[in-house]
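Lab notes, practical 5.
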Amino acid sequence: MAKVYHDEDADLAHLKEKKIAIIGYGSQGHAHALNLRDSGLEVVVGLYEGSRSWSKAEGEGLQVATVDEASAQSQVIMILVPDQTQRAVFEASIKPHLSAGKTLMFSHGFNIHFSQVVPPPEVDVSMIAPKGPGHMVRQVYQEGAGVPALVAIEQDASGHALDVALAYAKGIGAARAGVIETTFKEETETDLFGEQAVLCGGTSALVKAGFETLIKAGYQPEVAYFECLHEMKLIVDLMYQGGLSYMRYSISDTAEYGDYTRGPQIVNQAVRDSMQDILENVCNGNFAREFILENQSGRASMNANRRREAEHPIEQVGKGLRDMMSWMNKTDG
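Output from the prediction step:
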């Protein structure tokens, strides 16, 4: 069983005499900065000059500085910019300011695990990865609870890396719920596999395949959209609330029987073999190399995929149907 830490296992005193730099002010960045500040800790937000988030962070009452300045004046530095930009930001504006006794933190292990960021050996390197989006990390903290998180230690130069990481988890509210011990390797490989095989890649492909199958058979696109995409939220919400058993308890007997008998026809041995291939390509670094090269070469393939997918009939049909649903939060799509 995984080791789980809670509030009583963490002590904010490990951060009381330290300034914490939050590099980036996106979904996670704003939540971490505000929660740490509200926990009584000293925070500075590090941004590039001209960032649109600069005035937003200042408007929340936070100190803001350039990444160089924030890194130089802080003892704990949490990098919360996108994976593809972390190496450049680290090399240019963070690495020059690292010295013995400082802590470098991440919320995802990609760049450490695949050696895109190589910290000096005299600094602590750790991870606190909340298992929820930033707005939820902030909202639940304000409600007096917390979003669970993962903790991992990659380098423990000081001998107190775990103490500092757990104090950080307590500061953002995660220790209220529970902080599960893992490694950078495990977090990175399971995260990438889950995104590709199930949460994003697998789900998107399954939804489109179902939609296309019904259209090919002559059914109306609007009806196909409802059955293969719109109602997905109902099922996922039930799983999220109580697992597969609760979902099956909540749906009709007809749907439950179809789940047991037809699901394995879709996710058959060939699909499982493909999942194994995806996992192997994550673990051996092939996906990481592919993604890194894609970004270095201008993201031509990724941009082409975005354009193609935006033109898929399911997107066009869905936009029209979502316009009929006044209760939904509207997006640009």
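Observations recorded by the TA: The CA atoms of residues 301 and 307 lie 10 Å apart. The longest strand covers residues 124-130.
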